[in-house]
Design brief:
The structure is a homodimer of 764-residue chains.
Chain A (H helix, E strand, L loop, with lengths): L17 H6 L14 E7 L5 E7 L1 H4 L4 E6 L29 E2 L5 E7 L2 H9 L2 E6 L33 E9 L2 H7 L2 E9 L11 E6 L5 E5 L4 H12 L6 E4 L16 H11 L3 E4 L2 H7 L6 E9 L5 E13 L7 H8 L9 E10 L13 H19 L3 H8 L8 H5 L13 H12 L1 H4 L8 E11 L9 E8 L5 E5 L8 H13 L6 E5 L16 H28 L6 E4 L2 E4 L4 E3 H10 L6 E7 L7 E11 L5 E11 L6 H20 L29 E6 L22 H13 L10 H11 L1
Parallel strand pairs in A: 1-12, 10-11, 14-15, 18-19, 25-26
Antiparallel strand pairs in A: 1-5, 2-4, 2-6, 3-5, 7-15, 8-13, 9-10, 9-12, 13-14, 16-24, 17-18, 17-23, 20-21, 21-22, 24-25
Keywords (chains A, B): Molybdenum, Oxidoreductase
Protein name (chains A, B): Putative hypoxanthine oxidase XdhD
Organism (chains A, B): Vecturithrix granuli
Chain lengths: 764, 764
Amino acid sequence: MSTKNLQVVNTSLPKVDGISLVTGSARYVDDFTMPGMLYAKILTSPHPHARITSINVERARAVPGVHAVLTYKDLKPIRHTKAGQSYPEPSPYDRVILDNKVRFIGDRVAVVAAETLRIAEEALQLIEIEFEVLPAILDLEKAMQPGAPIIHDEQDASGIYDASRNLAAHKAVGYGDVEQGFKEADLIIENTYHTQRQKHCALETHGSLAYLDENGRLVVITSTQVPFHTRRQLAYILEMPMSQIRVIKPRIGGGFGNKQGTFMEDLVCVLTLRTRRPVKLIFNRAEEFHQGYMRHPALIRLKTGVKKDGTIVAQQMSVLADTGAYGDHALTLPTSAGRKILPLYPVDHVQFECHTVYTNLPVCGAFRGYGATKGTFVVESQMDEIARALNMDPLELRLKNCIKQGNVDRLAAAFGEKIPRVMHTCGLTECMQRGAEAIGWREKHGKPGNGVVKRGIGMACSMQGSGIAGVDWGAATLKLNDDGTFSLFVGATDLGTGSDTVLVQIAAEALGVPPEAISILSSDTDLTPFDVGAYASSTTYVSGGAVKKAAEQMLTAILAIAANMSGEEPTNLNYHNRQIIAQNGKSVSLREVALYSVYETKEQLTITASNTSHISPPPFAASFAEVEVDTETGQVKVVKLVTAVDCGVAINRQLAEGQVEGAVTQGMGYALFEEMAFDDQGRLLNPNFADYKLFNAFDMPQLETILVETYEESGPYGAKSIGEVPINTPAPAIANAIYDAIGVRLFDLPMTAEKVLTALKKRK
Amino acid sequence: MSTKNLQVVNTSLPKVDGISLVTGSARYVDDFTMPGMLYAKILTSPHPHARITSINVERARAVPGVHAVLTYKDLKPIRHTKAGQSYPEPSPYDRVILDNKVRFIGDRVAVVAAETLRIAEEALQLIEIEFEVLPAILDLEKAMQPGAPIIHDEQDASGIYDASRNLAAHKAVGYGDVEQGFKEADLIIENTYHTQRQKHCALETHGSLAYLDENGRLVVITSTQVPFHTRRQLAYILEMPMSQIRVIKPRIGGGFGNKQGTFMEDLVCVLTLRTRRPVKLIFNRAEEFHQGYMRHPALIRLKTGVKKDGTIVAQQMSVLADTGAYGDHALTLPTSAGRKILPLYPVDHVQFECHTVYTNLPVCGAFRGYGATKGTFVVESQMDEIARALNMDPLELRLKNCIKQGNVDRLAAAFGEKIPRVMHTCGLTECMQRGAEAIGWREKHGKPGNGVVKRGIGMACSMQGSGIAGVDWGAATLKLNDDGTFSLFVGATDLGTGSDTVLVQIAAEALGVPPEAISILSSDTDLTPFDVGAYASSTTYVSGGAVKKAAEQMLTAILAIAANMSGEEPTNLNYHNRQIIAQNGKSVSLREVALYSVYETKEQLTITASNTSHISPPPFAASFAEVEVDTETGQVKVVKLVTAVDCGVAINRQLAEGQVEGAVTQGMGYALFEEMAFDDQGRLLNPNFADYKLFNAFDMPQLETILVETYEESGPYGAKSIGEVPINTPAPAIANAIYDAIGVRLFDLPMTAEKVLTALKKRK
């Protein structure tokens, strides 16, 4: 199979919602208002760890215009259910809806619904609370020390983790025999790396609007990546039948993993159920910083054994991660640092261990890259250390060891995946070769120059998945309209990524129609078939596969009708450009088939197909960074960043490039600037875009994106995924480039000017 | 098959939208408002027939707040397409969107959209028009006379009718040899009857709100009975792809055939397309009277030949009907007077002829009963005349001649129906027997008493169809949700009739779940499968059949999964009360199957099924009226009305009874009071509920409804239809009761006190 003869797929079709987005007609949660709507506001904890000994809301309730004030006293202490794709069960990791204990500054204490936001804010200030302040853990290394305060001392906090040690998750897994492997090695390199709390910073903050529809069903318009999971969670938390809840995702302004969390939907719905009024809550930026997810910080130790010729024989990684006060991603995310990245270099002996602890800091969760980002920083930083130790070209070392087509991800099996994860496609070598060519690797590497400002070149590789193998799935429904156009219904969730466009392209291609002939409706639990939602780089591969299946079945049904009309067997029909030509010379158009089905056979053609990810085929990426380091200030400037990505076939080339550009920008911020900073009282110091430094237009280097095409047979039209993998490579590529420039290795993200300067001074 | 073991069907489940209706949360068109919404108002003709020689809208356009003023000069003269289920072609019968000629008082001249209704009304008054007034035809008998003014002299007014004679439609059809039949008869009775213009008087007037959604697609929320037909018509009239138009029917307050018309949607959409703003138009009551449909008035001649023993041998009916200035129902409705009713008494020789003419009066169209109502008045009035001439009991004459199970409707074949219309069920005899029993026929008939107020008993029978054979169809989609509940999507249109409830009952019965487990979404062309809409008594039989098929296929799919789960063949499973018990003893619940399909097989179960009406099985009705006639005033009071109906199995007994009660009330109004009255200038004299007398609470007799159950195998759970047939019988039953009371036959509807008194005086 190839991309030859494709009409719609692999082109750069403008976004189907593009005009609405640029003209401002697209509606985000905050664009919805309703008669009688109330505004909600959450009162949060000022203490990192405390027990509520007394709470009095009488004065707040008495404020005119206040319709509800709720605290833990008003609600059953129901614990949030597991995130992600799992049966509806309470999660031992997650919070109860409102609790009598607070575990971080920003933890929920009470919620108010009032006729204006100002009244709600006023009422919050009138809530009288007494806290018993408890000692707090603000350092992940101290969480498991004997005598540490216990963050989850509640009765039901027993289960798969060890609450009494503040251990949120633990996993040890591997294959081969690392001890043996290290014995066989000629050289062993071992380092410890530190990665930071990064904030997603989607331009749209979280928002939800709940209301009761005319039949009394609960509707939630919310900025979520996972409408069906949200419905499941709300049904559990609210103790309502799922059929009485409808979750709608309108246009949303970015997710990046943050909008997998149910941070407000539960409270907004409770307020609507109590007041019988529409209730809206939109986080401001500070609330988003405190109450949303963030990337898990971690200490990661990596030990690698290599032969003199550069052959890697053993790798051992141990992760100590901080999930904050809660966190349903405590197991799956930090383990992904190894699970997703150690397979990059297939090695005979691998050992991985992870401990995730609770601290009295805000909650960590899903973030684009999902553990692979920190794993890549560690593995790819160390690869350059190994190359230096062996005096090899880092590119050559990687090319020698890297994963290739036909290889099997043995760690996936060790993690319990049932179907062997074979690399049916792997463009990583070509990514490295073409990226090296584009940056001028051979000419520029190892030539820092003599000035105050040194120049360096660095590279890094990464891989990711396409949905979670054996877990993620989605479905698509296609309806044929009277005029030969189609309505496409998908549970898949466009976060601004353009997935609606990609899915329309797949449908149009498979149906042989122009994209204008497809109307898409996505992300409404009432109206669309099931989909796990947008995470784990799943939409194009998983949901797109469902769309392709549905379209193919639809075309078969259409040809059966055309066969009827033309008096020929379906096998004797030729379909091209919305015209079906029979061997007997008769020809009918798609529109004629549609009219025939409406007016003659009298049958509504509607097809639903489902699709899942069996082995999560990885996309691959290689980034090459060229940096300038000012040795007097420590300032690092990225001059050029080349990223070559194997995402299989790009369904929409421009959108794929957009994903790469967005991801590497976020990756450069992670490398150089972004970090949530706390004081010694657990207070977040930079919950705003003035003090939390994002990578912006002035910081941008010259970007170059190379799409290395492979054809993944299991994906729709050869597609794998692209949304996450390019975020992983900038940080290690820049770290390696800094080393190339100034001979200093930074083990601690972000690599600020201060750290560079300190490291330079230390070396001197 | 029988109704034994039914759990949900055949009960009186409260309406699924009942709470929303009684609490006022249900939303009708006028309950929707949108930011920036404009109000539209139509300027109509003050002349019954005129040409616009000059029109100046400059002053109107200059009014602040006016956003658009449109006349025929601004629009392409596109003719409305055919109503009902037909390919999208222009209708030779219907109007062009805005024309330079007006053909009745109330015909559309111009339309305005402004920021308030007051501004729109003000602007209308500033439009300056000069008319060339033309001679008008206000009497259907004069329409085809030589030299009559030609109402449709436009160029494209050629086609299947003879515009040059004002002939809108003509049909002659029959079987056997009527001349021979009349020769064989011992007695021939021939009379001419006149039936009037009746107005539907749905409590909600027509209303539409059009807007462009965020993607620029045109959405119309409108009080229509036929969302899919409206979409088709709008696509044609607006020259837009159908896929760019979405039609939504919200809650609506009655249709009765009137809401099959596209009286405003086209103009509202044009205004939205021109102004890019939401535009709403709600008819006031006077506009509804002038611009909506009304029942066709007709002169009907009926000639019947009978043997001395009462055997009917030949019937000949000729209809001269008036469609008003336009009317897409000009052929199908007036011909239904014979087509639907002559089969009531299977006769060897039948001849039917119909001429429908244009006049310069408002437009006639579909109305509950659709021609059968006037046909029943004629046939059933004459049956009593025959009985009197033969000195037979009218009940016995009917029982002797009436259609019975196994009979074939030979007229249907003559009209071109391909499948023989066999009466697989026919409860008419039982309807008559039980109705006669309930009214006390034998005791009371022929005993008018001696006072000033005479008492009389009369009866009449009728039949109708269940959808249009070979034409009407609908589809239903069922989606299984995670929790074992279902979403039901139907194009079928609930007009307040309760069809949403009936369809939920059918789905619940077939799926073996309580009705609460089904969420229904109906009447949205984007979201639901196709359905022809609510007319011709089709919804329960046709759309209900689709729901049952979809539910049965869904249950099969569910059992296949359960078989998988329990390791048994599907044939070895027993399904009861949402539990599937395998022969091997394993048991799984419906909810477990749903969870299994979400979390294990990973498949969205969604089923779409379609269903059509092959032979339109008739429901039957017999009404028995007891009246008091004041011989001094002519006033007729209905004392009691018994109506027995064979609708097959009533899916919802209470709703079925409600249909009967509503229909006979409307039928009594038709009998005694209701008539649109015009002066000799073609001006409607009573366009309001003060002057147009409806049958109201004070007029109500004791009502009794008897549901005579038959089991129609082709219908869902034995159902046929019920919405229309009971409207047909009150008028002739009352006419016959009046005759029984005072020995006077009235041939002219409505039978007002004035007419009764005049007839009484004439007789004396």
